[in-house]
């Protein structure tokens, strides 16, 4: 039986199985769907989110959307919140290239995502890419 969300070759080459990729994709889709449903009266289904996130993964070609650095796809499904709470920032830094889903845009009927490293997503946070560039330029100008 074929899956509508086959693990891309660049992820499979990192040793990630179809099962592990599908579990990651399902969790990300569910998380974003729940969060958006709490923010807006959305008509988007979890399946719509799954489709959009999988497309973003394929479009990434395994790289951080904003820095073009290679992502560590072998890390998906390994981040443990309890360990992060215990170890703090040192733990989080070990996962700077963990692929994460950047929620670029969402409204009542669509959602758009980009794939980037956890470090990038932490820095970008709620900013648009243009806002992030402006902010980064201020830092560079100051330093």
Give a short synopsis of this structure.
The protein is 52% helix and 10% strand. The chain is mostly helical and 143 residues long.
Architecture overview:
With 143 residues, the protein is mainly alpha-helical. It has one domain. It contains seven helices and two strands. The protein has helices at residues 9-12, 18-39, 46-60, 81-87, 89-93, 118-124, 129-142; strands spanning 99-106, 111-117. Strands 1-2 form a two-stranded antiparallel sheet. The model has no long low-confidence stretch (mean pLDDT 92).
Neighbour order of strands in the largest sheet: 1-2
Order of helices and strands: HHHHHEEHH
In whole angstroms, how far apart are the ends?
56 Å
Low-confidence stretches: none
- Overall mean pLDDT: 92
- Estimate percent helicity: 40-55%
Question: What would you call the shape?
Answer: globular
Q: Nearest-angstrom radius of gyration?
A: 16 Å
Number of helices: 7
Number of domains: 1
Counting helices, strands and paired strands, the structural category is mainly alpha
Q: Report the β-strand fraction as a percent range.
A: 5-15%
Topology, number of strands: 2
Biggest sheet statistics: 2 strands, antiparallel
């Amino acid at each position: 039986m074929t899956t509508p969300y086959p693990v891309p070759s660049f992820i499979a080459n990192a040793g990630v199985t179809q099962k592990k990729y599908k579990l990651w994709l399902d969790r990300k889709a569910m998380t974003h769907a729940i969060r958006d449903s709490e923010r807006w009266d959305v008509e988007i289904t979890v399946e719509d989110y799954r489709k959009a996130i999988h497309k973003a993964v394929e479009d990434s070609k395994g790289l951080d959307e904003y820095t073009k650095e290679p992502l560590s796809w072998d890390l998906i499904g390994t981040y443990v919140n309890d360990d992060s709470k215990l170890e703090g920032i040192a733990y989080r830094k070990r996962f700077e290239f963990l692929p994460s889903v950047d929620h670029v845009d969402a409204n009542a009927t669509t959602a758009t995502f980009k794939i980037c490293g956890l470090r990038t997503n932490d820095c970008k946070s709620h900013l648009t890419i243009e806002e992030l560039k402006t902010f980064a330029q201020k830092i560079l100008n100051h330093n």
